[in-house]
């Protein structure tokens, strides 16, 4: 059995943290990275193969995902505090008066599809399609989907007036808001304009990321663009929506981290998780700024090129 080294843990952790949030598929890159490198790398990944459970590599992957979720929670901590407080308030008042309150329920509704289908389909789909050739094909298709998303965005160009008609904000001041807090709250108004049906559709789009090669962030962003969001808002909703999905999946598998299979590799696992958390933080910080003025096209082209080369390599 190949032992996970500190170098391997750092490389895989950093790649996972970046590709989880970039719209290029973390699972697909994890599969293809070790396949391209071969040797001990491929043997390491095979420990978490088609029928494997309670393996060192599975425990390692769990740690990486939890680290990414923690990084997202930390980065959007102010948003999450407002969203959680808004959710609790709606349970008491039975009303949706503010942006955080509406966002809370949009996230809840959009999380239902992956929350129900994820535990049922995650392992079977990985067992069927985690081979490098399938990851290559799905990565190429992911690029095509991103191209299509850009077309949908241009066709569904929104206006602020339309958003205003769909959701009239009622200000609810529980105290004195700072200028920064007010600006952040108003900037999320297009997100709160989404309908609950929109949230269901975006949630089902996220389920596609169960296939190695399709990106959770990419599919969710395309869903947001389809419903008329700008790139900046589609990206933020994708990151907010990814947080409970990634964290929930990680917590369900948390016992793997403390089982006997991790004895001897807990040091590399910790280092890999730190690498994943740091790279996730840097990735979301970069992408939040990037999508203010840029589009998905470079990521789409990257997926098509890398996916096509990988199809040639592994076919």
Question: Helical region count?
Answer: 15
Task: Provide the residue-averaged pLDDT.
Answer: 84
Residue windows where pLDDT falls under 50 for at least 5 positions: 48-53, 169-184
Number of strands: 0
Percent of sequence in beta strands:
under 5%
Q: How far apart are the termini?
A: 27 Å
Structural class by secondary-structure content: mainly alpha
Shape: globular
Question: Which percent bin holds the helix content?
Answer: over 70%
Helices and strands, in order, run as: HHHHHHHHHHHHHHH
Q: Any idea what the radius of gyration is? A: 20 Å
Tally of domains = 1
Q: Biggest sheet, in brief?
A: none
Please tell me about this protein's structure.
With 315 residues, this protein is an all-alpha fold. The chain has one domain. It is 75% helix and 0% strand. The protein is built from 15 helices and no strands. About 7% of the residues have low confidence.
Topology:
Elements: H1 6-21, H2 26-37, H3 40-46, H4 56-75, H5 77-93, H6 99-129, H7 132-155, H8 160-166, H9 179-187, H10 189-192, H11 196-207, H12 216-226, H13 231-252, H14 266-290, H15 297-314
């Amino acid at each position: 059995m190949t032992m996970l080294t500190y170098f391997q843990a750092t490389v895989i952790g950093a790649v996972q943290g970046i590709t989880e949030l970039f719209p290029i598929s973390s699972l697909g890159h994890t599969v293809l990275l070790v396949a391209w490198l071969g040797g001990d790398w491929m043997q390491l990944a095979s420990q978490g193969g088609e029928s494997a459970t309670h393996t060192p590599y599975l425990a390692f992957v769990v740690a990486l995902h939890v680290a990414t979720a923690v990084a997202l929670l930390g980065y959007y901590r102010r948003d999450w505090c407002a969203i959680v407080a808004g959710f609790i308030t709606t349970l008491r008042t039975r009303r949706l008066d503010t942006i955080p309150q509406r966002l809370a329920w949009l996230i809840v509704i959009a999380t239902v599809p992956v929350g129900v289908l994820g535990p049922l389909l995650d392992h079977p789909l990985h067992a069927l399609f985690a081979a490098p050739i399938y990851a290559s094909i799905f990565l190429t298709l992911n690029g095509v989907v991103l191209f299509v998303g850009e077309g949908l965005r241009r066709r569904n160009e929104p206006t602020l007036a339309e958003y205003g008609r769909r959701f009239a904000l009622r200000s609810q001041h529980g105290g004195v808001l700072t200028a920064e807090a007010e600006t952040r709250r108003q900037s999320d108004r297009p997100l709160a304009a989404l309908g609950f049906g929109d949230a269901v559709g975006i949630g089902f789009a996220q389920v596609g990321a169960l296939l190695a090669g399709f990106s959770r962030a990419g599919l969710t962003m395309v869903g947001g663009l389809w419903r008329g969001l700008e790139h900046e808002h589609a990206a933020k909703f994708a990151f907010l929506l990814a947080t409970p999905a990634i964290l929930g999946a990680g917590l369900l598998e948390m016992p793997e981290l403390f089982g006997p299979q991790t004895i001897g590799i807990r040091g590399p696992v910790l280092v890999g998780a730190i690498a994943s958390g740091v790279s996730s933080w840097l990735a979301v910080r970069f992408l939040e700024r990037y999508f203010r003025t840029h589009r998905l096209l470079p990521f789409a082209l990257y997926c098509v090129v890398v996916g096509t080369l990988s199809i040639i390599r592994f076919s």
